[in-house]
Amino acid sequence: MKKAVVLVSGGMDSAVVLAIAREQGFAVHALSVSYGQRHTSELEAADRVSRTLGALEHKTVQVDLRAFGGSALTDDIDVPEAGGPGIPVTYVPARNSIMLSLALGWAEVLGANDLFCGVNAVDYSGYPDCRPEFIEAFERLANLATRAGVEGAGIRVHAPLLRMGKADIVREGQRLGVDFAATVSCYRADADGRACGHCDACRLRADGFVAAGIADPTRYVA
């Protein structure tokens, strides 16, 4: 089986991506990043998802982005209840660049040529590092900056959800047997992983289930 490193946040999108990678026949090595986010319940969810969806192993690495701040997820900035114009304060500067770089490093050690991530450019919060141009640029960088790119079979960055709406992601996850109740997407989840029901991530997730016509198993704070 070909090896792949899959970034797993604990949310619904990355869970579906892991399931897609497994369906495509990859031996999945799941990677999560503890970057100083407000809660650890999503990391606990990432471990659950990785185990139940058949990852060979799951690593969590630590990078303290709270040292820089600049985001409502890594600084003392309130998480807004609704998205506004422009790039929202929940954007974490360079987060996807950092996470994909870590995945790239592990992939080289494993001898893996494939990276998977759950970025989405349709129903998302407007982050610049969720666009197709970013994925294409990172793949070019990966093939310039690594031994695998220069001497080996090359590096491929897969973003299978890139052009899917949230309802399509929900349907795909259901088809693949993803337990969405085990995932945590909320920006303000409590210690038990219960969602606030009001932040942008909760709104997008809830709208996806409604549009898909599938019952929402998300646990909300009472």
* H/E element order: EHEHEHEHHEHH
Q: What level of helicity do the residues show?
A: 25-40%
CATH architecture: 3-Layer(aba) Sandwich
Strand order of the largest sheet: 3-2-1-4-5
What sort of overall outline do the alpha carbons produce when their principal axes are compared? globular
Query: By helix and strand content, what is the structural category?
Result: alpha/beta
CATH class: Alpha Beta
Low-pLDDT stretches:
none
List keywords for this structure.
222 residues; 37% helix; queuosine biosynthesis; Rossmann-like_a/b/a_fold; EC 6.3.4.20; ATP binding; Rossmann fold; alpha/beta
Note down, in words, how this protein is organized.
The chain is α/β, with parallel strands linked by helices and 222 residues long. It has one domain: HUPs (Rossmann fold, 3-Layer(aba) Sandwich), CATH 3.40.50. Helices cover 37% and strands 11% of the residues. It has helices spanning 12-23, 41-52, 95-110, 132-145, 147-151, 166-175, 200-212, and strands at residues 3-7, 27-34, 57-62, 114-116, 156-158. A five-stranded parallel sheet has the order 3-2-1-4-5, sandwiched between helices. Helix 1 links the parallel strand 1 and strand 2. The longest helix is centred in the middle third of the chain and has 16 residues, at 95-110. The radius of gyration is 16 Å and the shape is globular.
